[in-house]
Amino acid sequence: xxxxxxxxxxxxxxxxxxxxxxxxxxxxxxxxxxxxxxxxxxxxxxxxxxxxxxxxxxxxxxxxxxxxxxxxxxxxxxxxxxxxxxxxxxxxxxxxxxxxxxxxxxxxxxxxxxxxxxxxxxxxxxxxxxxxxxxxxxxxxxxxxxxxxxxxxxxxxxxxxxxxxxxxxxxxxxxxxxxxxxxxxxxxxxxxxxxxxxxxxxxxxxxx
Length: 208
Fold this sequence. Notes:
Layout: H1 2-10, H2 14-34, H3 40-52, H4 59-87, H5 93-100, H6 104-117, H7 120-127, H8 132-141, H9 146-174, H10 178-207
């Protein structure tokens, strides 16, 4: 009895993990949407692996809701801050941060696609690595109102959360131990994120 009580106090239960894990996931994804240095896709995939190995019902559904809601809140807040910067004479550091991560070539492509396809481009921008901020800046330059951006961003965040959660479920299903699935999911996420930039470098080398 003493041993089991000690183990119970040392090893956190699933309910404790959930009580700590979901708010942490929400906060980290929210921060990652505002300051795009946090690997939010890897976070969602890792959380999906852990949820896949849990016995508690609706764990995967809670990961999906938490991740998509945090991404939507972060995107909406960043767009609102960007709109304030556009209206200000002196700009803002948030607007400058968006501009610094939206190269002219990517911005021109985003503006062209946004003019042709409208809100559908927002969905693709969330799924393409480094595609979110150029499209967001294109929306700012096109003076989209907050309501229009938010309406298009809802399916974008849902599709993003589903995609990275499926990566986590795949990693969790391939390995019996959660940590192995987390490593596999993170590695796959990194490969997916790095693939476009590597492809552009290869094309540039061939053209040169």
